[in-house]
Amino acid sequence: MITGLGLRWILTLLFAAAGVFCLYRCALRPGLSGRVADALHAAMCAGMVTMAWPATMTFARMPQVVLFTAAAGWFAVTAVLGLGHGRLPGAHHALMMAGMAWMAFVMPSAMAGMTMSATSMGAEHAGMDMGDAGMTMTGHAPVHVVVVAVALAVVFLVAGLVWLARAIDHARTVARPGRREAGLAMEGVMSLGMAVMAVAMI
Q1: 136 SS3 class
Q2: CB-based contact 160:189 (threshold 8 Å)
Q3: In which region does residue 159 sit, left (phi positive, over 0), alpha (psi from -120 to 50) or beta (all else)?
Q4: Which phi and psi (to 5°) does residue 81 adopt?
Q5: Res 102 pLDDT > 90
């Protein structure tokens, strides 16, 4: 439910770039656990791109709920077992996947509290030429959606800043930043993008 066209394109490009990076890293990883993690992150990026656009925000909604719920379970288990990047990063990945599943699940409920209105940009009547009309959202999401969305937005914002700070710190210690630093930056971008999408649910 991103209403600004410019923000939609920014999020689309950021998540598309992150998804491509995840697929690239997936192809280079030697272990199964890392490959599964990258594949799930790529799927998450694809899901976020669809959610950014009104025409596709509910595309394959229930399959997304099932997929990302399973993904959250995967990351939760690997975090407990200490696999992947460690327990805290694994918990963050599990929360991102759970957040994706939640967003896909509550999308109809969030949209039910809002109304769509057309504002004509060049026609005398709003319904005269929908190609020249801009769509705006009015109203508010249900209280329970707002509460969860705000909590997720705060967590993802803080986590995203931490990931980006780690990426900068690592980049300063090497002569030439590489895949590891890009991976940390990608984690930060995805987390900040999730924060923006959580706010958009309100």
Answers
A1: strand
A2: yes
A3: alpha
A4: -80, -5
A5: yes
